[in-house]
């Protein structure tokens, strides 16, 4: 932000309010898994998807989702009741010695919303002094990562944005973009969604080009590019898998046949019931109690605790065998497990 901006009323107000009632720059909540099924209403609308996804959030999740289907869900698996969004990534499998595949059990999911990116400003290379990423627009659909990727380019923010946290039996943790090459008590599959929006489209033909990663900074913070000038709250997804029973990490493979880990991807449909509440979260969910603060716009009308809740989808998944009753001979969709 230019120095002259210091004298504008808006910024003075920001400085005051940040001294008096400090805003937060992130909030987070947990979500139970809603369903594991071969569906992807963004990439394969109305059809069976190419591979199995693990899905959290609103109970309206189904193969055909209109612009407001998510928002109208009756319930959510997430701790914040007004969040009927859906979040999903490919399911993790373990390839047994006989070549069959078994589901790696999910061990919880966490969603973060972060105030990290800022609007495009000519010449700006950092967000110093400016804040105010807006809520993701109603109905926004986002795809991050690429199911077909099997190689890695560290210079590409989009590729840096999908990561794996290997949590060891001793509690230590290490992060890689590839699938960990050592045993992990838990594997945390992580996707940081792009934070910059074109300001106009809530989806696009390739489901990607309406969104972008920052032009400066890194995949998880910085100034938005001119092509996608509007900074929205960044969304970061963590899906935990219990890999403790499977120390043979070479046999971990995602449902899309990817054992490299570079084909990890994450999808989002905005289903927040109250956009204004979402936009006010960083200013109101403050103090030591965060989401339990009585002023918190996200939870002030919430009756139940922030504990995530088990739910089933309103529209049941097809009966396809995806490993829920024991090992399957092939990855559903016949995705070859190539590494
Ligand atoms: C960024 O741009 C959006 C869309 O024009 C606007 O609503 C928002 O207030 C801007 N943010 C800041 C901090 O100026
Ligand atoms: C969801 O809510 C609608 C409207 O209240 C109701 O008709 C329907 O039975 C509910 N579905 C489930 C699965 O609870």
TrEMBL record:
Region (Disordered) location: 300-339
Xref: Pfam families: DUF1996
Domain DUF1996: 40-272
Keyword Repeat annotated: no
Key words of the record: Signal
Annotated signal peptide: 1-21
UniProt-listed InterPro entries: DUF1996
Lineage, highest ranks first: Eukaryota, Fungi, Dikarya, Ascomycota, Pezizomycotina
PANTHER family xrefs: DOMAIN PROTEIN, PUTATIVE (AFU_ORTHOLOGUE AFUA_6G11970)-RELATED, PTHR43662
Protein name: DUF1996 domain-containing protein
